[in-house]
Amino acid sequence: MDPSEMTDKELQDAFAQGKLKPGLNVVLEAKKKPVNSRDGLKQCLADFRKDLAWVERLDIITGLAPDVAGLTTDKSNIDPDDDFQREMSFYRQAQAAVLEALPRLKQSGIPTRRPADYFAEMAKTDQHMQKIRKKLQEKQASMERGEKAKQLRALRKYGKKVQTEVLQKRQKEKSTMMNSIKKYQKGLTDRLDFLEGDKMQPPKGKPDGAAAQRMKKGPNAKRRFKDQKFGFGGRKKGSKRNTKESFNDVSGFRASVAHSKGPVRPGKKSSKMRGSNKRPGKTVRQKQKNRAR
What we know:
Elements: H1 8-16, H2 38-48, H3 54-57, H4 83-107, H5 126-186, H6 209-217, H7 221-230, H8 244-248, H9 255-258, H10 271-276, H11 282-292
């Protein structure tokens, strides 16, 4: 009976009888005894062995090749822990096998050298090489796309730089034009060459001859008129206030003009006439309307 199918009562009884011990209960299998069947091994070896020609097997058992430097051909004197001796023994044993196999191959008529026009067969199939070629083409195309994108970014960046320089140049030309217009309005120059472009403008910082001569002589008539009309700048607050001299100066006083006693000019009305025809106020007009009703 499987222990996992036993009930609690049966498990308790088995534990009381000593059939169960504390801990994990695992069914132990008996150890396999090694069997050294020589007859079976020989039978397997006989099955593997086939009577083939040496050309099909190419197996050679040989010792070490004789060394020119005088090294011994005895394998028992080689120290396996010495790397140099161990590698040299492998090399000399392979050399001895070649020296023994080449004459036997020549006797069998088997060529041991490749012809001059020999091409080795590829270990990979054509389908695999097509996949590799496709992969390389995709990689090359990806690199070309990346290079083109890099060039486009550089061109776009250069285009932005050129556009910024053009805008700055236009702003500078506009500022120069406005300055030239202001100079012309102020009378500092009488030339309008700045309207034709940069070629006709005089060198920067050097005014033309007429402007320089005018600056030496003084402002023109337009500037003098504006100076006479608006003044020369500076403080204007309180400029119309009376002073002691202006208060005592009565040379410009006219009694007829001040008291309206003089003759009335054609097309003008005296103060009395103007007063008599004065329109009544809104309140008076409203009262007049009420009376009329």
